[in-house]
Structure formats: C-alpha cells, structure tokens
Design a protein that fits this description.
Helix content is about 45%, strand content about 20%. By secondary structure, it is α/β, with parallel strands linked by helices.
Length: about 150
C-alpha cells in the first residue's frame, strides 16, 4: 500500500495500565488504510514516554486506546500532564475504547475528559465516529511543498 504524502502522522498508544495489543493493531491498520502514517508506542505507555515521543515526533494527532476499563482514570492523568507542556497544548488528542469498568457509556466521564483537554472521546470504540473525525482533520501539505518552502 502506498500512503499519501498528505496524510496525517498519527501516534497510537494505550494508557499506562493497559497491556492489550490487539486494539492497537486494529487502530494502526484502520488508520493506515485511511491513508495516514502511524507511530505505534504499544501497550502500558507511561505519561513521560508519551510526552517525550510527542515532542520528538510532532504528530498531527494522538490516539489513546483502552480496553481494560481504566481509560478514564489513566487518560485523565495523561491529558492533564500533556496539556501542561506548552509545545503540546494544542495537539489534537483523542481517547476511545472501554473507558470505565461498568461496561456502559458514561456521558459525564466523557465530558470531564473533554474539559480536561481531549479533542474528542470515543467511548466504547465508536469506529464510525472515529472515521468521521479523521476525515474532518486538515491534511498536511505534501512533503515536497514543505521542503521547497523551507529552502526557498
């Protein structure tokens, strides 16, 4: 598969306590099929590593995924830390999957995550809503145009 140069660079990660991999593989394949590049951090990503990688790779979007039911708690801590970093304050960051242990969508928890700094919340893995969100994000200009502008 040839990826478009105008696709986004998307950093995909789990939360610090989530050791699941299959959701991350699914997300990577989905995002790549939609024409974007993926940087995968894997499971059990500490907040410090997430922040360090965001600074280093400068992704267009961060996607946090959780299936262990602790996405709300872990995501809240991660977004608060990430938003304290001036260079990452406006970086689009979304979270999705199983965000609570009850198994039911929690509108209040989703609102608290948005208030804390998430750009979007996809409780219980709403893949269609996630696809729509990705389709609305602005695309990068092609790499050749960026290089030409820098060297001109």
């Amino acid at each position: 598969m040839v990826l478009s140069q105008s696709g986004l660079t998307v950093l995909v990660t789990s939360t610090r306590s989530d050791s699941h991999n299959w959701n991350l593989v699914f997300l990577q394949l989905l995002i790549e099929e939609l024409g974007h590049r993926v940087i995968g951090l894997g499971p059990c990503v500490p907040d410090d590593l997430l922040i360090e990688e965001c600074r280093a790779s400068r992704p267009d979007l961060v996607v946090m995924s959780s299936v262990n039911g602790h996405g709300y708690r872990d995501g809240l801590g991660a977004i608060v830390r990430l938003r304290r970093e001036p260079s990452l304050a406006t970086l689009p960051v979304v979270i999705g999957g199983k965000l609570g242990v009850t198994g039911a969508a929690d509108t209040d928890a989703a609102l608290r995550l948005l208030e804390a700094g998430f750009t979007a919340v996809f409780d219980d893995g709403d893949v269609d809503a996630f696809r729509e969100f990705l389709a609305r994000l602005p695309r990068r200009e092609p790499a050749t145009a960026r290089r030409n502008r820098v060297t001109a």
